[in-house]
Amino acid sequence: MFLAIRELLFAKTKYILIGLITTLTVSLIFIVSGLAEGLSADNASSIQGLAADSLVLEAEAEGELGSSFIPMQKAKEIINDQEQEANTLSIQMMNATVGGGDKQISLALFATERDGMLIPEVTEGRSPKQENEVLADESLKQDGIQLGDELQLGEETTYVVAGFTTEQRYSHTPVVFVKSDDLEQVNAVAVKGESVSEGAYSTIPKMDALHGIPSYSQEQASLNMMIIFLYVITAFVLAVFFYVMTLQKRDQFGVLKALGANNTYLISGLIIQVILLSIVSVGIATAISFGIGALFPADMPFILNMATIVQPAIIIIVVSVLGAVVSLYQVIQIDPLEAIEGVAT
Amino acid sequence: MTLVLEHVHKVYQDGPKEYVALNDASLQVQAGEFVAVVGPSGSGKSTLLSIAGALLSPTSGKVLLDGENIVTLSKKEVTKRRLEKIGFIFQAAHLLPYLKVKDQLNVMSVLAHKSKQQKTDILAHLGLEHRIHHYPNDLSGGERQRVAIARALVNNPQLILADEPTASLDSSRGQEVVKLLANEVKEGNKAGVMVTHDERVLGYADRIITIRDGKVELG
Ligand SMILES: Nc1ncnc2c1ncn2[C@@H]1O[C@H](COP(=O)(O)OP(=O)(O)OP(=O)(O)O)[C@@H](O)[C@H]1O
Ligand SMILES: [Mg+2]
Questions:
Q1: β-strand A104-112 against B215-218: which pairing, if any?
Q2: Which of residues 208-247 of A touch B (CB under 8 A)?
Q3: Which is the closest atom of ligand 1 to the Cα of B48?
Q4: Cα distance between residue A205 and residue A29, in whole Å
Q5: What is the three-class DSSP state of A44?
Q6: A222 and A290 within one domain
Q7: CB-ligand 1 contact for B196 (6 Å cutoff)
C-alpha cells in the first residue's frame, strides 16, 4: 500500500492516461448494457412484467408463443385444471389507423379476460368498461394518441382508448389490452405459480417465452457479444499496461527484494494499483454513462440504473485483476540478485 | 554479529560449461570490524558478497550469521533475514524514483512492520536533514548514495554489505561515503564488508582481503 499509492501519485500522467482509456471502455460497456436492457424491455416488458409465473403452450410450439394455438374450449379446461389463478392470453400484431387518418400504427393486441389478473394497473384514465374500450401502453402517446381516441383496426373493429398503462411493450410495439371473450383460440394460458399441463400441452416459465419473441434472442446476443468483447479489451489493455510497467520496474523490484521485501508485499501492491485504477474508472464511467443516458431522446430504448451497472462493474474489476496475473508472475520471477551489478542471473 | 563463510564453493553453470567463481573461500568478520574486499575484475568479489548477503546460494559450503547457517533456510526465511539482519549498499544508489528521501527510509520500516518513527537522526547524521522532502532526481550522486546508506541502516542491521559503493562517485565523495560506512560499523558494533576497486578508500578498512580466481588470499 505504502509503495503502491506513492507510485500512483508520482507517475500520475501514465496512470491518468491508462485510467482514461479504461474509463472509455467501461463507459461503453455501461452504455451498451443500458441499450441491451432498454431493447430487452422495449421488446418484452409486457412478458417480463406479466402477472403470472408460467405459461401453458401447445407442446408443438416448442416454447414459441406465436406458434402455439389452444382452442378456447380447451383453454378453459386447462384453466379449470390449475390449482392457482389462470387466464388466457392471445397475442396478435396489428396495424391501426387513428380517426380515419392514413397513418398506420403498429400495435400488439393482448387479448385476455377483461378483469383478469393479466390486466396491468391503470396509470391514467380508467379501466375499460364498454364493449369496445381498451387499455393501452402509454408509449402510444408518442403517436399522438390520447384518452378517448379511436383506434381503427381493419374494416369492422374500432377500439376506444379508455386508459393508459405503463411498461407494456412487445416486439418493439405498444401493447393494447382487449378482451378475449369472443376468440375461438388463444396462444397460451398464463398461470400463477406452478402450472399443470398434460398431453399436447406443456408448461414453460414465463421468462423462457422471451426467446420466442421475434428477434429478442438475436438482439440480446449481439449486444452481449459486444459487451463480452469490451470486457476482454479492458482486461487486455490493463494487462498489457501493467505488464510493461512491471518490466520497466524490474530493477526496482529486484532492489526491493534484495532489501527484504517479500513477494506477497510486492504483489499486493500491484493488485491494489489495479483495483484502485479500475474502481476509479468504473466510478467516472458511471457518471459519464448516466450523463450520456440523460441526453438520449425519451423514446430511445435505453435503461440504465444502479442495478444494471453493478454486475458489469464487478465483472470489470474481476477481469482487471485477472489481467494483472501475467505481471504477478513477472514480479515473482525477478531475482533480487539483479540489484548487484555484474552478477548475471 | 559475526559473519562466517566456511569452504564456500560457487560454480556457475553456463550451458555445458562450468565456471568456478569461488573456490573454497573462507572468511570471518567480527562485530565492529570493517573489511575491504579487493581483486581483479571477474575474480568473484560480487559473488562472495551476494552469497554473504543471502542473495545467492553457494554450490557448497556454509554461511553463518551469528551461528545460523542461512544456506539451508527457505527462500521466505532468507528474505526475512535480509530484512532484519543485513543492510545492503549497491554500486548505484538504487533509490525508488517515486519516493521522497524520508519515504526511502520509511519503506524499510513498512517492510519490517515497524512504526515509521522519525528518521531525522539518521538523516542528520548523514548530513541529509535539508533533503528530507526531495525526490532522488533532485539529489547529487553523493547525496543519493548517502540516502542509500541511511536506508541500509534503518532497521539497524548487524551486517552491512556494500558492493563498490563508491563506483558512481568522484574521489572526494567516495572517501566521504566510505568514511561514513566505516563509522557506522564501528559505532554500531556491526560487521561490515565492502567490495571496492578504489585504492584510496582502503585506509578506512580494518582488514583487506584479496580475491584472485575465486580464491581468498588473506591479507
Ligand atoms: N550467472 C553466471 N553465469 C556464469 N558465470 C557468471 C555468472 N555470474 C558471474 N559469473 C562469472 O563469475 C565470475 C565472478 O563474477 P563476479 O561478478 O563475482 O566478479 P567480480 O569480482 O565482482 O568482478 P567485477 O570486479 O568486474 O565486479 C566472473 O568471471 C563472471 O563472469
Ligand atoms: Mg562485481
A1: unpaired
A2: none
A3: 18
A4: 29
A5: helix
A6: yes
A7: no
Q: Which ligand is nearest to the CA of B211?
A: 1
Mean pLDDT of B110-125: 84
Dihedral of alpha carbons B197, B198, B201, B202, sign: positive
Q: Which of A179, A212, A245 is the last residue of a domain?
A: A212
Ligand lying closest to the C-alpha of residue A337: 1
CA diameter of chain B:
54
Position B201: which residue type?
Answer: V
DSSP A52: -
Q: Per this entry, what is the length of chain B?
A: 219
CB B59 within 8 A of CB B18: no
Contact between chains at A339 and B90 (C-beta distance less than 8 A): yes
| Count of other CB atoms within 10 angstroms of residue B136 | 20
Three-class secondary structure of residue B132 per DSSP: coil
Q: What are phi and psi of A81, to 5 degrees?
A: -70, -20
Is there a single domain that holds both residue A196 and residue A232? no
Verify that A120 and A246 share a domain, yes or no.
no
Looking at the fold, whether A101 and A123 belong to one and the same domain comes out as: yes
Tell me the CA–centroid distance for residue B13 and ligand 1, in Å.
Answer: 12
A177 grid coordinates: 389490452
Cell representation of residue A256 = 526491493
Residue A122: give the domain boundaries. 47-212
Contact B79 A3 (CB under 8 A): no
Say if CB B85 and CB B54 are below 8 A apart: no
B183 alpha carbon to ligand 1 midpoint, in Å? 29
| Alpha-carbon span A253 to A228, nearest angstrom | 34
Q: Is the dihedral of CA A220, A226, A229, A233 positive or negative?
A: negative
Q: How far apart are CA B34 and CA A337, in angstroms?
A: 23
Same domain, A107 and A205: yes
> Which residue puts its alpha carbon closest to atom 31 of ligand 1?
B42
Q: What is the pLDDT of residues A298-344, one digit of tens each?
A: 889 999 999 889 999 999 999 999 999 999 999 999 999 887 765 54
Per residue in A15-25, pLDDT (tens digit) is 999 999 999 99
Give me the total of CB pairs closer than 8 Å, taking one residue from chain A and one from chain B.
87
pTM of this prediction? 0.86
Tell me how far apart the alpha carbons of residues B64 and B195 are, in angstroms, rounded to a whole number.
19
Compute the nearest-CA separation of A11 from chain B (Å).
8
The atom of ligand 1 lying closest to the CA of B49 is: 18
ipTM value: 0.93
All residues at 6 or more sequence positions from B219 whose CB lies less than 8 Å from its CB, including other chains? B207, B208, B209, B210
Kindly provide the residue ranges of all beta strands, DSSP E only, lying in A77-183, ordered along the sequence: 86-98, 104-112, 124-125, 133-137, 150-153, 157-165, 169-170, 173-179
